[in-house]
Specification:
OB fold (Dihydrolipoamide Acetyltransferase, E2P), BirA Bifunctional Protein, domain 2, 505 residues, alpha+beta, nine-stranded mixed beta sheet, 15 helices
């Protein structure tokens, strides 16, 4: 390893520590409390006028150091919070205080044992009787900033550069406690989703990540190769076709929370590797799934936030029921002034868009033209929770057509905060119709187009055994956490987001 000048100073300290007979990296620690539980127990016992009986052993990082003659004040931080430490020279010995700066630095992991007390300023504090190193930090924490803690100004590390924060998430988590809170909120969100689905008789399952045929979404896959089998495989872009096989197999309510992989662009709401929830509900249609979705997300807000209202991107969002419902055709008429049913071919729809001054590539299929209108004009306007429903068949190859109009399918997308959150439909369960859709998609889109769905003969075989009427649903967990944690980009809610390779230029 190559060390900076500051790091080399700490490396030299380690050598001196070892030479003095101290192990800078002991194998274990024995904390009895967290910073929070120590404070809570002390507060309780203090009311009984027996606070001196609260003996505590803490483990965590040193976050401040102040040597003041014969006393030392410090702060220890663990994953729960921060607590002040107090050292007195005549109790620990002159050598301890004299050597304190030669051994310890901000960022070191330490163990502190002693008795709880309250300082003259009223701060709950651990009066330290025993103290030892748990792990010497070689790299100093990032540049300092001032923070007021219990009325006292303390300088501590901060990390604000986004590029550095995402590349060194471990450092980001150390010095920015609000980032740790985002990921606690993420864990609560996933737990709440699981609880809601489990309580509604769904079974959590796992489906293959490596798949011989990709499908279930409009996206380019990542390709890999199995050496022994001499077979190309794809990282899944969706769970859909496998989960619906389970519906065929009489597992009537199933869900999966896991990773999908899409070889597509990176943006504030896209990452090549992301977490998704999909569920499938036998004997339900898209309207029932719509109602179920409202209730599920209201429950999540209650569990995670304790409220169905929250701020996102400067807007107060209300997840109270019911959500607004907008029929897609009417939404485009109201917003853009184009009735898509009046333009049944790509040529006529393209001409209508040109008349409105909407610039798009003339080679796009009709479905993609409609999709661009949704993305450019409807999606950004849906700040409050909104269901957009009844989609064109061209962009919904796995959804069931409406009986009164075969060119429209029973599909909805849910939008919150101006971005798509979820997608759902009444599943197509006619194997002959599904085969025709696969063939149709192959004709309408060029090879390599991310809207192209490959033919999946085994999936058609499964449908031929019979699949009951089924409602299906998919939602990006990362985007949901963006909303609940009020984060402007998906990178803020993924612990290790994908980044471009560093260059030397």
């Amino acid at each position: 390893m190559k060390f900076s000048d500051l790091e080399q100073i700490r490396v030299d300290k380690i050598k001196n520590i070892v030479a003095s007979g101290i192990n800078p990296y002991p194998t274990s620690a024995n904390p009895t409390h967290t910073t929070i539980s120590a404070r809570e127990e002390f507060d309780t016992e203090e009311k009984k006028e027996d606070a001196s009986a609260v003996k505590v052993c803490l483990a965590g990082r040193l976050r401040s150091l102040r040597v003041m003659g014969k006393i030392i004040f410090s702060h220890l931080e663990d994953s729960h919070g921060r607590l002040q430490l107090f050292f007195r020279v005549n109790e620990l010995g002159k050598d301890f205080v004299a050597n304190f700066r030669d051994i310890y630095d901000i960022g070191d992991y330490v163990e502190a044992s002693g008795v709880m007390m309250r300082t003259k300023t009223g701060e709950a504090t651990l009066h330290v009787h025993e103290f030892r190193m748990l792990a010497k930090a070689i790299t100093p924490l990032p540049a300092a900033k001032d923070e007021v803690v219990d009325g006292e100004t303390i300088r501590h590390a901060s990390l604000s550069d986004p590029e550095m924060r995402f590349r060194q998430r471990y450092a980001d988590l150390i010095v920015n406690p609000e980032v740790r809170e985002v990921f606690r909120k993420r864990a609560k969100t996933v737990k709440a989703l699981r609880n809601f689905l489990d309580d509604n008789a769904f079974l959590e399952v796992e489906t293959p990540i490596l798949q011989p045929i990709y499908g279930g979404a409009a996206a380019q896959p990542f390709v890999t190769h199995h050496n022994q089998l001499k077979q190309d495989l794809y990282l899944r872009i969706s769970f859909e076709l496998y989960l619906k096989r389970l519906i065929v197999g009489m597992m009537d309510r199933v869900y999966e929370i896991g990773r999908d992989f899409r070889n597509e662009g990176v943006s504030y709401k896209h990452n090549p590797e992301f977490t998704q929830l999909e569920f499938y509900m036998a004997y339900a249609d898209y309207l029932q799934v719509m109602e179920f979705t409202e209730n599920m997300l209201a429950y999540v807000c209650d569990e995670v936030l304790g409220s169905r209202k929250f701020m996102f991107n400067g807007n107060e969002i209300s997840m109270e029921l019911p959500w607004k419902r907008v029929e897609l055709r009417q939404g485009l008429i109201d917003t853009v002034g184009i009735d898509i049913e009046a333009f049944p071919t790509k040529e006529t729809l393209y001409a209508a868009m040109q008349e409105k001054g909407i610039s798009v590539a003339p080679t796009l299929p009709r479905g993609k033209l409609i999709d661009s209108l949704i993305g450019d004009y409807l999606e950004p306007s849906f700040i409050q929770p909104t269901f957009l429903y009844n989609y064109p068949r061209e962009i919904s190859p796995l959804a069931k057509s409406k009986a009164e109009n075969p060119q429209i399918v029973e599909r909805f997308e849910g939008f919150v905060g101006g971005m798509e959150l979820c997608n759902a439909f009444s599943e197509l369960n006619d194997p002959q119709d599904q085969e025709a859709r696969f063939l149709e998609m192959g004709r309408d889109y060029e090879d390599g187009d991310d809207e192209q769905h490959p033919m999946d003969d085994d999936y058609l075989q499964a449908l031929s055994y019979g699949m009951p009427p089924t409602g299906g649903f998919g939602m990006g967990i990362d985007r949901l956490v963006m909303l609940l944690a009020d984060q402007p980009t998906i990178r803020e809610v993924i612990l290790f987001p994908h980044l471009r390779e560093r260059t030397n230029t």
